[in-house]
Design brief:
Layout (H helix, E strand, L loop, with lengths): L2 E4 L6 E4 L14 E3 L16 E3 L5 E3 L7 E3 L6 E7 L5 E7 L5 E5 L1 H9 L9
Amino acid sequence: MALTLAGCTPTNVLTLTPDEFDLPACNDLSTVLVEDLGTDRADCNLAGASLTFPDGTEVQMDKYGSGGHYADGLSEYLYSWESVGDYGIVAAKHTEDCSTIEIWGTREARKQLNESGGKSWFCN
């Protein structure tokens, strides 16, 4: 059995096996600054936590640890996040046309997304 995370196109597919979803839940699911995601690899599962971006925008991740997008309609920016199993979380702040992009995340999670062809997974 495997979990597949896919964008809108069949070329951007990341497949993870069940053994890549073994991280224990984090004890403290308070707000996590996206700048703090920049470690080598996650030590606990952040599903259900809130992510805070450098401009103060806060988004709530669902308790199942998938991904999502947020736009408040007042800013030119969109906010996206994706769980990459035991590899961690990747978050992005970007314009709708993806001409301006900032990305945060664990080194391993970013590597997994990049290798799956999803360097701009949030723009698909």
